[in-house]
Amino acid sequence: MRLLLLALPLLLANTEDPDTIPPPIKAMLDAAMDAGSEGDVAVIVKYAKAAAPESGELVTRIASKWNKQRRETAQRKLREADFFDLIKARAELGGYMTSGNTENVGLNAQIELKREGLEWRQKLRVQADYQESLGRVTRERYLAAYEPNWKIGERAYLYGAAQYESDRFSGFTDRLSLSTGAGYSAIKRPGMKLDLELGPAFRTTHLITDASESNMAARGSLDFDWKLSRGISVRQNASAYLQDANSTVSSKSALLARLIGPLSAQVSYTLQYESMPPARRKSTDTISRAALVLDF
Fold this sequence. Notes:
Layout: H1 2-11, H2 23-35, H3 38-51, H4 56-80, E1 87-99, E2 105-116, E3 120-133, E4 136-151, E5 156-167, E6 172-189, E7 192-207, E8 212-227, E9 232-242, E10 248-260, E11 263-274, E12 284-295
Antiparallel strand pairs: 1-2, 1-12, 2-3, 3-4, 4-5, 5-6, 6-7, 7-8, 8-9, 9-10, 10-11, 11-12
């Protein structure tokens, strides 16, 4: 593809008919559209305008019509699909080593469900961390989070978020966080996406001391996915609840490598920060994990 693009000025030197597309450009454009690659189509249109300005308008019209038809087909499939047809799932199972409050080996399990509809996007995540050392439980953390998104434009959306956590080693038996606000897809293209969210939140926490506290907070989150190649991708998720009482920041960085079919290997680094941990506890836990991930 790159060699053909570099050679276009020579191949098109004698082309002056504005009503036709030069064969080299037409062949590359047809191949990119047949492959369903929006990125390649955009690149061909860009270089076609530079190499053959006289046919640039026609190439642009053909590419625009193709993009419009793809969007209409995708929207029709979303409207006609059953509820379960649009659900995608990701299951993760692995082990980890920890530093900070605990330095042991344990197991982690997580499942994520996502449904992308025409107007609504829904996400559900359930996670469990459990660890024992010499017959003694040294880590026990459970999390369940649900987030519905209502799309109000091509990139903007309104979100709601509900998250339940239980982690007595971080000082609480139960913590419920509720939030609503606005989200924006800052990057939205094939192979890369970045979603940003910001809004107010309400948190209620039952501490291990049997005391309870409720606070207003500000919530922000970041969700980044980047497909580096056909088999390698990077994910970065982060969220923060900032308040006068205990504030929380969590982050997960992951590198995935496709093994076979829907099965991938993943290495990740997770950080959990609590600004006001219990006495004799550190404020930051870091976890390095190796896991198998199944997409279905």
